[in-house]
Design a protein that fits this description.
The chain has about 140 residues and is mostly helical. The protein has one domain: Globins (Globin-like, Orthogonal Bundle). Helices cover about 65% and strands about 0% of the residues. Helix 2 packs across helix 7 and helix 7 packs antiparallel against helix 8. The protein is globular, with a radius of gyration of 15 Å. Bound molecules: protoporphyrin IX containing FE. The site of protoporphyrin IX containing FE has 22 residues, from helix 3, helix 4, helix 5 and helix 7. Protoporphyrin IX containing FE binds next to helix 3, helix 4, helix 5 and helix 7.
Length: about 140
């Protein structure tokens, strides 16, 4: 059936289950790799590697509320593209827009899209706020 028929329960179920999430992620990557600006940061990345790395994050994203993300820092994961390739806030926003569009195109209801985007938005600051750990990563 179409995504997001349920009104209650965990986000994963409300969005339509794991199959829908997988399709969202697939479509999201297709949009990222088709973008002439974002490809600058992705051309030398293996898409399978990237997807594998992000899978824990995606599980968290669609998982139960009030669970903090305890994975690797997104600042550190993107430090090279931020510092060496000029990845900026506009690029982050473009990625966010593609994620939102991917959910919408797969039929997720507005309310669920809003919920997911609210969980993602705080990571913007994390991307671009220098951290004492930057130096370790760059060493
Ligand atoms: C990993 C690029 C947006 C979350 C990565 C990696 C790259 C990358 C190159 C792999 C780093 C490595 O190999 O260690 C990009 C580009 C984006 C983007 C070009 C364009 C918009 C986002 C957004 C989020 C995000 C919006 C979440 C808010 C993550 C996470 C990982 C990751 C969680 C895996 C971290 C780990 O556990 O190692 N990204 N990213 N990315 N990205 Fe992004």
């Amino acid at each position: 059936g179409a995504a997001g028929q349920n009104t209650y329960g965990p986000l994963l179920q409300r969005v339509g289950g794991l199959d829908v999430v997988k399709k969202v992620v697939e479509l999201f990557y297709r949009k990222l790799y088709a973008d002439p600006r974002l490809i600058l940061f992705l051309h030398d990345q293996d898409v399978m590697h990237l997807r594998a790395k992000q899978s824990a994050f995606i599980s968290w994203l669609f998982g139960p509320p009030d669970v903090p993300y305890l994975g690797r820092s997104v600042r550190i994961a993107h430090l090279r593209i931020v510092k060496q390739r000029g990845f900026i806030g506009d690029d982050f926003d473009l990625g966010m827009k593609y994620f939102e569009q991917s959910m919408a195109e797969l039929g997720a209801p507005e309310a669920i899209i809003g919920e997911v985007m609210r969980r993602l938005r705080p990571f913007r600051d994390a991307f671009f706020t220098p951290s004492p750990k930057d130096a370790e990563e760059e060493a």
